[in-house]
């Protein structure tokens, strides 16, 4: 180390280095920079925390809205023109999307009777000059297509038609009122859910069908609703706590093979009593925001069913709570 | 709790402040020799002390916190030197060589000689003769071996000595 000591070089380099800088001033500058950096960090962290809190709150609100689902349900039942679309979206969650699609497609074409007419029954056209009955009948036909047992429901649907037809006379314009009435589809939504008659008692069903006019929202009245399949029917009530099973009735020749009753779901399976008969019927009612019902029949002959009885109104339906 | 926090903060500030008061001037003068610009040297040392403030909890555990600060300052000078060289080249490509010369600080004869030395030789000489660091400390600061430091010091000393002798002869 001594070999490198050189006073001349040292003094020369110290000249180049210059005089000592102002330490106090420099220290103030450094402290100011440190303070600014820390303030920036605090601001960044607090902003990030604020964003997280806000996003969390928004997520919680959205979750709570999704859980409720009540507002979505109440809307489609009110008889407005714009609401049929909402009905469609609401029901889209359930299995009955086909039904809704049919209703929606008919809505803009409401003036075209041929769209609904061929697929449905001429009786509906005859009963009302308006096209509404056509719409009503088309909806169940679409729904019944996927399932086997719902052939007869086509025949029962006309029984619902009187309600819309009776309500239409007040409408002065034959073209517009039919459009609105089918769109609100009180018969579509309520008829299968509320009134769908069990196999045993067809006459009793028609009375409630006529009773629920367009004015009564189903959400307010916790009526006993009946859902019918080929193997039997279930009467249930929708309460704030969930689904309540009121009564289970198996069709003649059928017994209940499995039943599961919970607050959010009722599952009832029917099998034929005879060993040779392999017909099965599974009936499901679910409540998740809205009440959806489904009926899965196996081994039922559609034609014979349609000729036999009017028991099966719908294959799959959904209704609002 | 607040008293403890205040105490720790003041202790930390005292430590950094002590280091600053003891070493700031030396570091700035040494870096001035290395980079040839006292303002740039002062900026680099201040930036290093700012980082030391912000990371003092970790740096205080080091054996030689001043060595860490010195390395950070030297790296800062090197970075600024590189960016200045890139900028100068870009300016040169654009044909504005006058701007290049106008940005050069006014340096005297010795400073001009120092500027001709390689960076490592200049840094070793500055730290040895201005900061009066040992060969080992210089090796740690430059992250090279002691033999390399000795080599750089020897080369720098030869060139500076020749300059002094030629000036004495004149």
Provide a concise account of the structure shown:
The complex is a heterodimer of chains A (321) and B (170). Chain A is α+β, with helices and mostly antiparallel strands.
Helix/strand structural class of chain B: mainly alpha
Fraction of residues of chain B in helices?
A: over 70%
Strand % of chain B is: under 5%
Order of strands in the sheet with most strands of chain A:
4-5-6-7-8
Strand count, sense and barrel status of the largest sheet of chain A are: 5 strands, antiparallel
How many DSSP helices of chain A?
Answer: 14
Most extensive interface: pair and counts?
Answer: A-B, 25 and 37 residues
In N-to-C order, the SSE pattern of chain A is HHHHHHHHHHHHHEEEEEEEHE
Taking all Cα atoms into account, the compactness measure Rg of chain B is 19 Å
Overall, the morphology of chain A is rod-shaped
Overall morphology of chain B:
globular
Radius of gyration of chain A: 35 Å
**Class by alpha and beta content of chain A:** alpha+beta
Total beta strand runs of chain A? 8
Largest sheet of chain B: none
Mean pLDDT of chain B: 82
Which keywords apply here?
heterodimer; A: 321 residues; alpha+beta; three-stranded antiparallel beta sheet; 14 helices; 50% helix; disordered C terminus; B: 170 residues; mainly alpha; disordered N terminus
If you had to describe this structure to a student in words, what would you say it looks like?
The complex is a heterodimer of chains A (321) and B (170). Chain A is 50% helix and 19% strand. Chain A has 321 residues and is an alpha+beta fold. Chain A has two domains: 36 residues; 250 residues, no CATH class. In chain A, the strands form two sheets. In chain A, strands 4-5-6-7-8 form a five-stranded antiparallel beta sheet, with helices on one face. A three-stranded antiparallel beta sheet of chain A has the order 1-2-3. In chain A, strand 2 and strand 3 form a beta hairpin. Chain A starts with 6 loop residues before the first helix and ends with a strand. The C terminus of chain A is likely disordered. Chain B is mainly alpha-helical and 170 residues long. Chain B has two domains: 105 residues, no CATH class; 64 residues, Arc Repressor Mutant, subunit A (Orthogonal Bundle), CATH 1.10.10. In chain B, helix 4 packs across helix 8 and helix 8 crosses helix 9. Chain B is globular, with a radius of gyration of 19 Å. At the A-B interface, helix 1 and helix 2 of A face helix 1, helix 2, helix 6, helix 7 and helix 9 of B.
């Amino acid at each position: 180390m001594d070999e490198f000591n050189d006073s001349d070089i040292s003094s020369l380099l110290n000249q180049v280095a210059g005089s000592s800088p102002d330490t106090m001033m420099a220290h103030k500058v450094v402290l100011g920079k440190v303070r600014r950096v820390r303030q920036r960090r605090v601001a960044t962290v607090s902003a990030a925390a604020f964003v997280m809190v806000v996003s969390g709150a928004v997520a919680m609100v959205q979750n709570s809205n999704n859980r409720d689902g009540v507002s979505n349900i109440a809307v489609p039942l009110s008889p407005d023109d714009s609401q049929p679309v909402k009905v469609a979206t609401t029901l889209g969650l359930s299995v009955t999307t086909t039904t809704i699609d049919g209703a929606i497609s008919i809505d803009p074409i409401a003036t075209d009777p041929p769209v609904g007419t061929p697929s449905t029954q001429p009786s509906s056209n005859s009963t009302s000059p308006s096209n509404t009955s056509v719409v009503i009948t088309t909806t169940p036909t679409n729904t019944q297509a996927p399932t086997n047992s719902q052939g007869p429901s086509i025949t029962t649907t006309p029984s619902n038609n009187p309600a819309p037809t009776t309500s239409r006379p007040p409408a002065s314009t034959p073209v517009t009122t039919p459009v609105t009435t089918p769109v609100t589809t009180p018969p579509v939504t309520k008829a299968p859910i509320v009134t769908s008659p069990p196999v045993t008692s067809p006459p009793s069903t028609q009375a409630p069908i006529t009773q629920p006019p367009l004015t009564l929202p189903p959400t307010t009245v916790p009526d006993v609703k009946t859902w019918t399949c080929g193997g039997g029917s279930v009467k249930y009530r929708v309460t704030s706590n969930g689904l309540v099973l009121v009564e289970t009735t198996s069709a003649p020749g059928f017994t209940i093979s499995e039943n599961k009753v919970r607050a959010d779901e009722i599952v009832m399976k029917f099998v034929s009593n005879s060993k040779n008969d392999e017909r099965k019927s599974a009936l499901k009612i679910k409540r998740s925001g809205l009440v959806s019902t489904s009926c899965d029949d196996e081994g039922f002959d559609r034609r014979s069913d349609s000729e036999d009885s009017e028991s099966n109104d719908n294959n799959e339906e959904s209704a609002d709570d | 709790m607040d008293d403890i926090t205040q105490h720790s903060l003041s202790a930390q500030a005292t430590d950094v402040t002590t280091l600053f008061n003891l070493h700031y001037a030396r570091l700035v003068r040494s870096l001035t020799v290395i980079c040839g610009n006292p303002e740039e040297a002062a900026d680099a040392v201040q930036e290093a002390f700012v980082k030391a403030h912000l990371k003092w909890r970790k740096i205080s555990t080091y054996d030689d916190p001043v060595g860490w600060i010195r390395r950070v300052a030297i790296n800062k000078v090197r970075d600024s030197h590189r960016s200045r060289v890139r900028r100068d080249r870009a300016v040169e490509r654009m044909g504005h060589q006058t701007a290049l010369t106008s940005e050069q600080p006014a340096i005297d004869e010795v400073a001009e000689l120092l500027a001709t030395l390689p960076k490592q030789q200049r840094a070793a000489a500055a730290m040895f003769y201005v900061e009066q660091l040992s060969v080992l400390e210089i090796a740690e600061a430059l992250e090279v071996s002691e033999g390399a430091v000795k080599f750089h010091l020897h080369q720098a000393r030869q060139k500076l000595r020749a300059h002094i002798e030629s000036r004495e002869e004149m």
